[in-house]
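Weekly structure sync, notes
Attendees: PL (lead), two postdocs, one rotation student
Agenda item 3: pending single-chain targets
PL asked that the sequence for the first pending target be pasted directly into the notes so everyone works from the same version. It is reproduced below exactly as submitted, 220 residues in total.
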Amino acid sequence: MPLPAFLPARPAALRLGLRRLLPLWLTLAAAATGLALGSATARAEPAVLPATAAAPAVESAAESAPAAAAVAPRADLPPVTVYAPSPCLACIDWAEHLRRHGFTVTLQDQPLAEMPRIKRWLNVPSALESVHTARVGPYFVEGHVPAGDILTLLKEQPRARGLAVPGLPRGAPGRESYNPICDTACTILDNASAEPVVRREAFVTLLVGRDGRTSIWARH
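Predicted structure, written out during the meeting:
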């Protein structure tokens, strides 16, 4: 199931825009309250917003775009196909993380019931499963693996099935935001009214050999 039409393809850009508009909204609300409670003379005077409060509203989209924009795709990198249950905002955030490191990413929404079949097709060990599964070149990438680990994998090209970050470690790419009532993929509006609480935890990226045995590829 695709995302609703009113949600942009890049959730990070929406978060940033909403945070920039929040001070203006609060100022407008305060001004409206003052007008309602003031005298008749005060109500007749035009409300003037402070210049500092109005600044976020006039900032152009071009100025805020670099924070969420992807870099130009690198021709030397194989394309990445991400299979993710729909909806999964954390999966989309991870795909954006890869794009910011030069990968060309295709996101394929799948019914949740189809994900186990895809993981078996790509030979992902059941003990290492996360939510989304990706394919890059001859390798699978399971879970929120940092782009740097994938770049090293493609450079060294070990004889292996792929990389995995089991589970959903907080602070991993695509898992930077934390909502105490949602551990998997809440809507991108959950943290719109305040800075997200980031709770990072140590995790490792595992290399899965062709025999299914694992070794630590990177520590984070």
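Discussion points:
- The chain has seven helices and seven strands.
- Confidence is low (pLDDT under 50) at residues 1-67, 180-193.
Action: rotation student to compare against the earlier draft before next sync.
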